[in-house]
What we know:
Layout: H1 32-38, H2 42-55, H3 70-78, E1 90-94, H4 102-108, E2 113-117, H5 121-133, E3 139-142, E4 155-161, H6 166-173, E5 177-187, H7 191-197, H8 199-204, E6 207-214, E7 223-230
Parallel strand pairs: 1-2, 1-4, 2-3, 4-5
Antiparallel strand pairs: 5-7, 6-7
Helix pairs in contact: 2-4
Amino acid sequence: MSELDISAGQGEFSDPLKRKVGDPFIPEQPTDEVREFFGPAFSDVEEYVHMLEEEGEIRGLVGPREMPRLWSRHAVNAAAVLDFLPRTGQILDIGSGAGLPGIIIAICRPELDVHLAEPMQRRCEWLSDVIDHLALDNVTLHQVRAEELRGKGQADAITARAVANMSKLIRMTTKLIAPGGSLVALKGRRAPIEVDEAAKELKSHHLRAQIHEVPSIMEEESTYVVVCKRQK
């Protein structure tokens, strides 16, 4: 990415909430804590973020207000699921979009068999480019809606970020979760409310939900990971 001259008018781009499509922006930089957190996977995560900086907006993957904070609001946020995944097995990331959290999982946990489900062709083309560029041999891409995978196997964990509320997620994914497996959903501060509203679905589908608050290493606001474990 070409360098941005910020010697004048820097304040114009300092607030990401004021940014519009095509406006220049100052790319967010990873902190030393972020580098340490990702460890050996950092270089590939960094390359993935660079790809998003270059193409995320023009390919309709990331909104203009999010471009200046790809590390804090996206890469680091998506990584919050890592501690709640099994050591081995198959992971199904539904509504993968730009690849969050699916690509982050594949990079950081190469021992996992990661499947990405995304119905939109342009997003699948992007995901295919990322998989090829990073040589991720533990990823399988499916251009389908999650519901279309019913009857074609079950995953040890299903991940979702910005796909639907908990009630709908449960209805979408329960038949795709292997016995003893989990739905692992990235949520914001409304997580407790969504879980309460999904009480009927949790009971009828034999799921037990736990909400985990994960402090961010780059932001003041925590990320919430909702883990719904299948009991039967």
